[in-house]
Amino acid sequence: MEYLKSGYPKEAIEFSANTPRVEIFNGYLDIPDGYNPADAYRFMEEEIAKFIYGKRSISEYDDFLEKLLTTFKYQLMLDSAEKQLKELEIIKN
pLDDT at position 86, please? Predict the structure, then answer.
């Protein structure tokens, strides 16, 4: 907010202050054995770019998700994150 006060209109500052934020809990999570975030993120970035630039059909999106969840073990990370966040009582059962 201090940055915005240095030269943005009052309306922009109010809009920014009232915009909902997405809370990120990555700092609370331990990466499970068998999951490599660098590989998964690289795969996600490369494939999403293909969708954006028309190199891959949107009809293949389910295939992309399936490969991410299985080959790149993203489901392992999702399950681990849910378990850890429940244990910390950040999310409820």
Answer: 94
